[in-house]
Amino acid sequence: MTEAASLKASVLVEALPYIRRFAGKTVVVKYGGNALAGTSDHDALTLFAEDIVLMRLVGMRPIVVHGGGPQISALMQRLGKEPEFVDGLRVTDAETVDIARMVLKGQVNPQLVAAINVHGRFAVGISGVDAGLIRATTRDPRLGFVGDVTEINPEVIHGLIDDEFIPVIATIGSDEHGQAYNINADTVAGAIAEAIGAEKLVYLTDIEGLRRDVADAASLIRQVTADELDQFVDEGIIAGGMIPKVASCTHAVRNGVHRAHILDGRIAHVLLLEIFTDAGIGTMIMHQREMTP
User: Fold this and answer.
1) What pTM, to 2 d.p., does this model score?
2) Are residues 82 and 88 in contact, defined by beta-carbon separation less than 8 angstroms?
3) Which of 72, 80, 153, 281 is deepest in the core (most CB within 10 A)?
4) Helices 69-78 and 94-103, interaxial angle, to 10°?
């Protein structure tokens, strides 16, 4: 009992300088649909919610941006539509954008909000359409109603976090005519992190981080610069659905976000392990290499 208590105390002491360092800092956490779909029960979601609430209670200002790719694909297939992707982005016709809106705003967003609010009145669910949070335009005619972010209105986010709420954001945006667009959640998370000057941008997905060799778990990349990631993409080491995630990471750290992280959302309390421990976990992306984390 004494040894167990001592271990708990040492963990708290190790976390103390990180709690002090990040108090008052904003952290954008993208919770991927793959992370949510990666477990048959809701343990991963429950643990994620606990991490987010703990971050909030020690003085951090978390913002959750979520995807829902597997859930959108599952509903499409039930409705007889076969998902199609180009460079990791979903081809989205008029019917598919309605499906995406139903899944993101009607299923995934309330699920995340409810999980967080088990611990108190913290989370507020919104989408990019609310208060013109995410303005978008057509990314590529071949993709249909897939949007590129043209503008982030940070006022609605600042209003919520200043009132000590946790925004939970579904990534449906709209143009000036009110046309809805399905927007890649990785891209949105990066754009929001830049717009509000976030300390950290964190991606939770169903892999433990970036690998030099996809088939080799021992090739996990612990730390990497934006320039190095560009080279990995050029060499084909990073491909497919990871390209939008990596592109948003590199853009963010080059535009004011201090660190970006890619973590396995299925690992118990992965956010706390990355943010509040010396060793960290997953892959950390920075603009340039520094001596201190």
Assistant:
1) 0.90
2) no
3) 72
4) 120
Q: Do the beta carbons of residue 200 and residue 258 sit within 8 Å? A: yes
Closest by Cα among 248, 246, 105, 97 to 175: 97
List the one residue out of 31, 75, 4 whose CA is nearest residue 169.
31
Cβ neighbors of 16 (< 8 A, separation 6 or more) are none
**Tens-place pLDDT, residues 231-246:** 998 888 887 777 878 9
In the CATH hierarchy, which fold is given to the domain comprising 22-286?
A: Carbamate kinase (3.40.1160)
**Among residues 129, 76, 65, which one has the least CA distance to residue 99?**
76
Q: Are 172 and 180 in contact (CB under 8 A)?
A: yes
Q: Where are the chain's structural domains? A: 22-286
Task: Express each pLDDT in 21-60 by its tens digit.
Answer: 999 999 999 997 766 654 444 578 888 999 999 999 999 9
86 token code pair:
């180009």
Closest-CA residue to 32 (of 64, 62, 63, 66): 66
